[in-house]
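Read as amino acids, tokens; as here:

___
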Amino acid sequence: MKANKKIPQWKSEFVSSIAEKIASYSVVGVLDISGLPAAQFQRIRHRLKGQAEIVVGKNTLFHISLQRAAGHKGEKILDLSKFLRGQTALILTNLNPFKLSKILDESKTSAPAKPGMISPKDITIPAGETEFSPGPVVGELQRVGVKARIQAGKVVILEDSPILKQGDIISKEIADVLGKLNIHPIELGLKLIAAYEGGIIYSGEMLKIDEAKVLSQIQGAYTNALYLSLNVCYPTRANIGTLLMKARVSALNLAINAKIFTSEVAPMLLSRSAAEMLSLARAICASDERALDEDLKRMIAIAPSPKEGEGKAEKPKEEKVEKEEEMAGLGTLFG
């Protein structure tokens, strides 16, 4: 009978150590470290010191470590195993996974393309004059699909020339042309493939967000919610000042039009009544001056003449609150 193969002690210790670390951190991520120079890897690891811990090892040992940690973290963490392909490492942290992704992206640097590499994005050679003098470079450019010719003693690229699409394998000819044009399309750094937090697996693409766009969307949602709450008169901490202002103006308008005397409304009603009385007096005076006494005649002479159309006493129209007055307080909400 064949004896079971003994597992080396260092492997058992490594798995136990990683399983304990996975259990102690809130976020566990899988990194792609392929093609990353050792010196840059160490710089990134040093930069993350105190914020995250990077562990390098074999994928099979990582898989076993995840299985052991599943009892504490939950079965969902085992889904990280499907991302353990190629050269990988685990990153352990208590940072928000979105913040972690941003930090890793900011640590990336540009590098020249080498033959056999995969293009990370579409690459187009822009039109314009180059620094090259006439020579073999014209043929090199033309061989990779760049329209170039000599003008006024310089090599000129006639139009924007796409030479690579994302995912294309970079040939030696294209790599040489990109190098001569000082175009460095390769990003070197740690790529976050996936991250686990609180029972959820986030893919690397999900963790890449446009902060300016998201902030704009949040501000738009806040403004829409604020206007909705004002329109339905739903009081909140953000709109209570504006609602009270709107209610006060509406109450004053109602009191004026309904002729309800209050300490605030009385002066306005008396002023309106005086204006209507003088307008009526002028209309009567125009027909028969004898109908007015001397005091009233003096008041008409001192008071400004009414504008055309104001001679007749009209039923007061209900005053409307301008939208700008109702929303006057909105400006203060956004500073």
The chain has a mean pLDDT of 84. The first strand starts at residue 27 and ends at 32.
